[in-house]
Amino acid sequence: MKKNLFLITFIFAFPIFSIACDICGCGVGNNYIGILPEFRKQIFGLRYKYNSMLTHLGVDGTRTYLTARENYNTVEAWGGWNITKKFRIMAAVPYSFNERNNQGVTNTKNGLGDISVWAYYQLLNKRNTVLNKKLLVQSLWIGGGIKLPTGKYNPSDKSSGSTAVNLFQLGTGSIDLNIGAMYDIRLQDMGINLSANYKMNNMNRFNYSYGNKYNLNAQAYYKFNIKNKIVIAPNAGVQFERSATDRDKGFTVDVSGGRLLTALAGVEIAYNKIAIGCNFQTPLSQNLAKGIVRSNNRLMLHIALAF
Amino acid sequence: MKQLLSIITICTILFSSCKKDDAPEYNSNVKAELSVEFDNIAGSSDLQLNTGSYVNAAGETFSVSKLKYYVSNFVFTRTDGTVYTVPQNESYFLIDESDDATHEPSMYIPEGEYNKVSFILGVDSLRSTKDISERTGVLDPANTGSDMYWDQSKGYIFFNIEGNSTASPSAGLFNYHIGGFGGSTIAAINNIKIITLDLAARGIPQVKSGKKTNIHLMADILKMFTGTANVSIASTPSVMFETFSSNIANNYCAMFRHDHTEN
Predict the structure, then answer these.
(1) Where residue A34 falls among pLDDT bands split at 50, 70, 90?
(2) CB–CB of B206 and A251 under 8 A?
(3) Per the CB < 8 Å rule, is B263 touching A159?
(4) Could you tell me if A278 and A266 are in contact, meaning their C-beta atoms sit under 8 angstroms apart?
C-alpha cells in the first residue's frame, strides 16, 4: 500500500528533457516524448515515435515532382537511474525505420540511431501546504547530455539534387551536446510544467553540422486517482522549436532550420510499477527550411516499468 | 552543491570547446563555377518527352516531342547590390529537353553570394542581326541552331515546342515556334523577354572556387497555355511568326521558378 501511495503521489511529475531524433523535423526534431513517470531507483521503457514530413516542396508550398513524403518511425529503449536523491542518469538507444516516398518510389533506411546519455541534477524540491491544506510541490531540474554518432550518416544522401534537404539520415554523424532545464509546479493534482532545452551540434567528419536548436515546452496536466490504484493523467500544452541553419563545409545550408509551433495532447496511465502513455502533436504554425519542408502530425506511444 | 558546481564546470568546458566553422571568405577577383539548371516540368510532373501525358488549362491532353529554347545574357546581382554581367560571348545557351548535357549551362562568375539572376529568354536583337561569323556554337543556324532559326529578317526561334494532342485539328500535332527580335530596319514582332528571379527566398547561391554551385530553376510548360491569354491547341495548333505569338511569349515568361540552390 505504501508503495502504491508513493507512486500515486509522485508519478508523472517530470517530463524528460528532449531526447530525440535530430534529423527528423528538419533539425528542429526535438520531439517531445511525454511526461516521464517518477521512479525511485530505476526505470526502463520502450517508446515508439512516429513523425512524418513533406520535403522538397515547391515555391508557395506546391508539390513538384521532387516533393517527397518522409516517414520516421523510431523505437527507443530507454532507462533512468537515480544515483542520489538529487542526481540521475538517463540514456536512450533508438532504432529507426525511415522511409522516403517520391513519385511512387519508396526508399527505406533502417538502423541504429544516435545514442544519448543525460545527467540531471535537482536544484529545487519544495513541498508546502497552502490554501486549506492543499499540497504545493515545486521542482527544478537542470541537466546536460551528450549524443553519440552511433547512427549512420551517409554523406552521399546529402548532395544529390533531388534530396537537397539533409534529413534522411539515421544520425548526425557528430558528437552533440545538450543542456536543459525543467520546472514543475503542482497544486494537489493539477500541475504545470515548463521546460527548455538547447542543443549544440558539432561538425561531423564530412564537414557537415546541423544547426543548433532550442525548444520550449509548456503544458498542464491533471492527475485522477482511481481507487488509489490507477492514475490517469491527461495533459495538453504547446511546444516551440527553433533551429539555426545547417552548415556544409562552412557554407550555410539555406534549405535547413526554421521554426515549428505545435499543440500537444496526451494521456499517461500508471498501475503499480507499469506506466503507459501516448501523445499527439499537431503543427499550429511553421516555417521550416524556407517553406521547403512541412512537418505533419506526430505520435508517441510508450510503456515503462518503474522500480 | 559540489555536484552542481562540477556539472556546471563540465558543461562550460564541453560547450566552449565546440565552435562553429567561420563563414567562408569570398574573393571577388577569383571566378568560380556556377550553373543554372533549367529543369523542365509540367505541373507536378517532371517533363517526359513523348511518353508523358499532360493536361493544359483548356483541358486538352497533350504530349511533348520537342522542347528547345534559348537563354542568354545572364546577369547576377550580389547580396550587396553590385551586379555582374556574364561576358556576352559566353552567355548564349540552347536548352534542349532531349539532351541532358544542355540542361545546366555553366558560367564562371566572381566569388560571392548572389540574390538575383536575370536572363533573356531568347536572343537579343543586336546578336540576332550580327554577321554569321559572330553567331557560332548554339547560334549557328547551319548547325545546332538549325531548327531554331528562320531567316535574317525574322531571326531566331526563341522557344520551340512541338507535340501531339487529340485536340489538334491538324493531324493531332501542335507546334509553337515563338521568336521575333523586333526587326532590324522595319519594326516587327518583339518577343524578347527578360526573366528576373529572386534567389533569396529559396536559397542564395554561395559561389566559391573549389566547388560547383547550381541554381535549380523549374520551367513549367503548362504555364505556356495560360496567363495573360489562354492558348488552346484546338483553336491554334500552330503558331509561328505572327502577332498571336506574343500571347504565348507573355505566358511562358512566367514559367520559371527558382526551386532551390545546390551549394
Answers:
(1) low
(2) yes
(3) no
(4) yes
Residues of chain B positioned with their CB less than 8 A from the CB of A255? 202-203, 260
Nearest to B168 by CA among B45, B41, B64: B64
Q: Which amino acid is at A246?
A: D
Chain A residues lying within 8 Å of B206, measured CB to CB = 251-252
C-alpha cell at A258: 526554421
For residue range A2-32, what is the model confidence (pLDDT) as tens digits? 444 444 444 444 444 444 344 444 443 444 5
Q: How many CA atoms lie within 13 A of B112 on its CB side?
A: 20
Buried b (16+ CB within 10 A) or exposed e, A83-105: eeeeebbbebbbebebbbebeee
Which pairing describes strands A176-187 and A105-112: parallel, antiparallel, or unpaired? unpaired
B22–A252: do the CB atoms touch at under 8 Å?
no
- Tell me how crowded residue A208 is: count the other CB atoms within 10 A of its CB: 21
pTM of the model: 0.83
Q: What are the grid coordinates assigned to A31, written together?
A: 520531439
Q: Tens digit of pLDDT for each residue in A289-300?
A: 888 889 899 898
Chain B positions touching A62 (Cβ under 8 A) are: 44
Partners of residue A204 in chain B, C-beta under 8 Å = none
Whether B130 has its CB under 8 Å from any CB of chain A: the answer is no
pLDDT category of residue B10 using cuts at 50, 70 and 90 = low
Quote the CA–CA distance of A280 and A266 in Å, as a whole number.
Answer: 6
Closest CA to A287 of A264, A263, A265, A255: A255
The shortest C-alpha distance from A160 to chain B (Å) reads 8
In this complex, which of B7, B37, B257 lies closest to A121 when CB atoms are compared?
A: B7
Q: How many CB pairs under 8 A join A and B?
A: 88
Residue A253 sits at the chain B interface (C-beta within 8 Å)? yes
Name which residue leads in pLDDT, A240 or A4: A240
- Min distance B172 CA to chain A CA atoms (Å): 27
Cβ distance A191 to A185 under 8 Å?
A: yes
Angle value at C-alpha A68, between A169 and A295, nearest 5 degrees: 75
Is B111's Cβ below 8 Å from some Cβ in A? no
Pairing of strands B213-220, B31-42: parallel
**Contact yes or no for A253/A246 (Cβ under 8 A):** yes
Interchain pair A87, B3: CB under 8 A? yes
